[in-house]
Amino acid sequence: MSFKWKATSDEIARVISKKNIGGIFSKSITISPNQKAAIIKNGVVEESVSSGKLRVGGLLKGEINKDVDIALMDISPKDLQWASSEMWTSDNQKISCKGLLRFKIHDEQKFFQMLFAYTTPGNNGERKLSVQDIYNRLESETITRVLQPEIRNIGIENIYGNREMQLRLENELEMQLKSTFAMWGLELIRYSVEWDLGTYEQVMQASNELHTNEELKELETLSKEGDIERQSREQIAQTRANFAPESVIRDHERNEGIKQVKHSAAISQIESESDALEAKQAIDTFRAWKETKKDLKRADLEIEEDMEDRRHYRDKDYLNNIMDKGGADTAKIIAQGREFGSMSAEQIEALAKIQEAEANKNDDRIKFMMDVEDRERADAYRHKELDAAMMGAAQNNVSPGARKCPNCGSVIAAEANFCGQCGSKMK
């Protein structure tokens, strides 16, 4: 009797015991396409078959009650839909990602080790490994361990629309998946990732809609304002058209007034400049006249000084000749006569009075000096009389080694030849 494994789409491997295979004389397993069977004895693969039938025992073969297990494997590619639904960014935004993993069995020995390590035998001693079992292991050991720590350190704005950041995360996850699959004896054939940024996309969409609505409202408001401004310009243009003649007249009158004021200002400026020029010319003429008058006066003074110098030198020469011939008194008399000759009667009278006053003053000074001399002479006589009296009184008290000066009466030493007071010689 032959055993055929009817694997489900989720089942990838099964380990059954030889005793669970029907048949007494012959126990065999029929291998379907994309399946592989291996005989495992004491944990070691003894024989493997990828097509046909595999004899595992029976009476005809003489293998009874042998401790043998048969591992059945589905070597066709398997698709696994994976997802990581709760991941939090650094700014506490919830995101998720999902994708497709396609893989197949590549290394039987490593796969058997993973099969026996991650499965437990059932009541009948069978072990089963499904795609879901692989996913559970993969999620806890690889997907969660790679994505969640990385996402936690990144802000939502650095992920949204940042394809470079997404590719970096995807490449890191792909490398970790390949490493894990290789360790389990599996080969990663295809790998895809689809990001879901959760409510952030809804918020961005709502924000974009809000901005769009605000811009539309702003455009509508600008359109209304444009209509109102256009109507205002039309009204202003109409008003200007209605008042155009009056405006032209007023502008003409205002321009004429401005021209008149400018004309008057120009005339005033010309007159002011003319007056200023005349005043400047008058000042220059006055200055020239003053300079001319000053020059003439200077010339007259120079002529007078020259005449005075000539007359002075002439008179000096004349007086020198007279002094040489007649003496100083004659020259003085002649000089005075010349001086009096050039004076008026009043000047001569005044000069006479001055000379008289000077003569009187000299007489008074001489008289005063004579009185002073008389008083000094009387005082001297009196002092001499007093000195003589004192000398007479002192003669009685003169010591034998002293004597008196006969001229002034001073007491001097007896052996002195001259008086120490008056300098007279002692006889």
Poorly predicted regions are none
For the CA atoms, what is the radius of gyration?
78 Å
- How helical, in percent, are the residues? 55-70%
Number of helices: 8
Spatial arrangement of strands, main beta sheet: 5-4-7-2-10
Provide the CATH architecture of the domain at 79-104 and 128-197: 2-Layer Sandwich
Provide the residue-averaged pLDDT. Answer: 78
By CATH's scheme, which homologous superfamily of the domain at 79-104 and 128-197 applies?
Band 7 domain
Shape: elongated
Mind describing the biggest β-sheet? Answer: 5 strands, antiparallel
Structural class: alpha+beta
CATH topology of the domain at 79-104 and 128-197: Tetrahydropterin Synthase, Chain A
How many beta strands in the DSSP annotation? 14
What is the string of helix and strand elements? EEEEEEEEEHEHHHEEHHHHEE
Distance between the termini: 204 Å
Strand content bin: 15-25%
Question: What is the CATH C level class of the domain at 79-104 and 128-197, in words?
Answer: Alpha Beta
Ordered list of secondary-structure elements with their pairings:
Blueprint: E1 2-4, E2 11-17, E3 27-31, E4 35-41, E5 44-49, E6 52-57, E7 69-74, E8 78-88, E9 94-105, H1 108-118, E10 127-130, H2 131-152, H3 156-159, H4 163-184, E11 186-191, E12 194-196, H5 199-242, H6 244-326, H7 328-341, H8 345-395, E13 402-404, E14 411-413
Parallel strand pairs: 1-3
Antiparallel strand pairs: 2-7, 2-10, 3-6, 4-5, 4-7, 8-9, 9-11, 9-12, 13-14
Helix pairs in contact: 2-4, 6-7
Protein name: Zinc-ribbon domain-containing protein
Domain Zinc-ribbon: 404-425
InterPro entries: Band_7, Band_7/SPFH_dom_sf, Zinc_ribbon_dom
